[in-house]
Write a structure and sequence with these properties.
The chain is of the alpha+beta class and 473 residues long. Helices cover 35% and strands 9% of the residues. The protein has one domain. It binds a DNA duplex (13 and 13 nucleotides) through strand 2, strand 3 and helix 2. Keywords: Developmental protein, DNA-binding, Nucleus, Transcription, Transcription regulation.
DNA sequence: CGATGCGGGGACG
DNA sequence: CGTCCCCGCATCG
């Protein structure tokens, strides 16, 4: 169906039978047709950092991928995670961004350009035609996913709020605290409960790990209430869910060798504001082994925004589950594509070198990644070899954790309130509560990115994940 | 401050 | 020409 048209065709399919659900992380040579009502599509949004490219064709909007910003030393954060920041779209801002230092090792940050399309950046094309928005992507991202736009925005908003009161010393303290806690909590959902909200309410967003297949989940009915936001979230949500499966093939691309560890990709972004984001590995197995960081989108949990996640959590709480189901068709298409792409010749070469760190021992079961709003996203991986089916298995394993998650919900949730907007919808909400005010401080002084776990977010995410599992079951 | 779009221009093939 | 990229301008949140 999707190959029946090309973005450059003089005439595109009229009145498509159905519209695709918004895909936050399109990858590979894929095409989608969104409803002109879809806000994310209207805004030409993408999880990838895409910048406008002049193609001298006002009918077709072309955007090219900026890649991802990582630590020049490719250092591994305490938990085996790596920074994967979203490149600023604005050239000027990007240059500034690259002058900042890695919060973990103080080395410089590095922009990994995207060369997934015949050596050129992956390109995305958008074209509005009647009631449909045609989307076409060309190329396979040869780099890890950066933090999603929503995560970035959440981080910023959080920063703004907190900045006023933040102090460096406090920030540092917070950071330390988080780290310590982080360690303590290794890997268990339960731990999450224990985690204090370091950041302040605002900053952290938790990212769940999307590595496993996520069954369709019901969406909160309220989503429908706010079409716009709801759609957005749902879209991203779906994307996240789908991505894991779809992209499984890609893992190889990023990480050539099969490893069994968990990988965590944590984009922590802390530029001026630092939010420590705490993330935990939900899996039972801690990441003690060195987790290899992979860039695989699939694995990256980051794809899910805190919002999304929170959304999930909410949905659960609310008992709205219907929504999830809808993601399906998108998945299918993706899945197919993925398979096709699995063999991509691209990247495999460089990427590994750049990104691949020592492989980590395989972790076992579940992996959850929690990210701060800021953007730390953890990615847990399974062995690179993992396939969809494998993921499924994991999922099952993970299911065990569901109860944990629920506990979380009970525990934390209350604390986290959903204020006017949905957490899922708006990142800011997440931040608003911060149980521990102290943490919220961000360090600005150095412009480093911090990462830390966020309780609220974590909570949400966990739930979301749990949810997923349940559904899957 | 940045994200986005737009569009002129230059460099290449 | 077509493809890419750079740059400035403008709008908007």
């Amino acid at each position: 169906m999707k190959l029946t048209w090309d973005i450059n065709d003089s005439k595109l399919p009229q009145e498509p039978k159905h519209f695709d659900d918004f895909q936050e992380w399109p990858d590979d040579y894929v095409q989608f047709i969104y409803s002109s009502e879809e806000k994310n599509a209207q805004r030409h949004l993408s999880g990838w950092a895409m910048r406008n490219t002049n193609n001298h064709n006002c009918q077709i909007l072309k955007k090219s991928c900026l890649g991802v910003v990582v630590c020049a030393r490719n250092c591994t954060l305490p938990e085996g995670i790596k920074l994967q920041l979203r490149p600023a779209i604005c050239d000027k801002a990007r240059q500034k961004q690259q002058k900042k230092i890695c919060p973990n090792c103080n080395s410089t940050l590095e922009l990994i350009p995207c060369r997934g399309h015949s050596g050129y950046p992956v390109t995305n094309f958008w074209r509005l035609d009647g009631k449909a928005i045609f989307f076409q992507a060309k190329g396979v991202h040869d780099h890890p996913r950066p933090e999603s736009k929503s995560e970035t925005e959440a981080r910023r908003s959080a920063v703004k709020k907190q900045m006023p009161s933040s102090h460096l010393s406090q920030k540092k303290q917070l950071l330390e605290l988080e780290m310590g806690r982080y360690h303590e909590s290794d890997g268990h959902f339960n731990n999450i409960h224990h985690l204090p909200c370091l950041e302040g309410s605002e900053k952290f967003s938790v990212v769940s790990d999307t590595s496993f297949p996520i069954p369709a989940q019901p969406y909160p009915s309220f989503l429908s209430t706010d079409p716009y936001k709801a759609t957005y979230d749902s879209a991203s949500f779906q994307a996240n869910m789908e991505s894991p499966f779809q992209k499984c093939p890609n893992p190889r691309i990023y990480v050539p060798r099969p490893t069994c560890g968990y990988e965590f990709a944590v984009p922590g972004y802390v530029s001026s504001s630092s939010y420590p984001a705490l993330y935990k590995d939900l899996t039972n197995t801690p990441m003690e082994a060195d987790p290899i960081i992979r860039n695989d989108p699939q694995y990256s949990v980051s794809s899910l925004n805190a919002h999304d996640k929170s959304l999930d959590g909410f949905s659960k709480h609310h008992g709205l589950k219907q929504f999830m189901g809808k993601t399906d068709y998108g998945d299918k298409s993706d899945y197919v594509q993925i398979q096709a792409s699995s063999n991509h010749p691209y990247y495999s070469g460089d990427y590994p070198c750049r990104y691949a760190s020592p492989s980590t021992p395989a972790a076992s079961a579940l992996q959850t990644v929690i990210t701060t709003t800021t953007k730390v996203s953890y990615q847990a991986y399974k062995p690179s070899v993992v396939k969809y089916s494998d993921n499924v298995c994991d999922t099952k394993t993970l299911l065990n954790c569901s109860h944990l998650a629920e506990n979380h919900s009970g525990t934390f949730y209350p604390g986290l309130k959903v204020q006017g907007d949905w957490c899922g919808v708006k990142p800011t909400l997440l931040y608003e509560h911060d149980p521990t005010s102290t943490k919220s401080e961000c360090f600005e002084a150095v412009d480093t990115y911090q990462y830390g776990p966020n309780l609220g977010n974590n909570y949400v995410e966990h739930e979301g994940q749990i949810f997923r599992f349940e559904n899957g079951e």
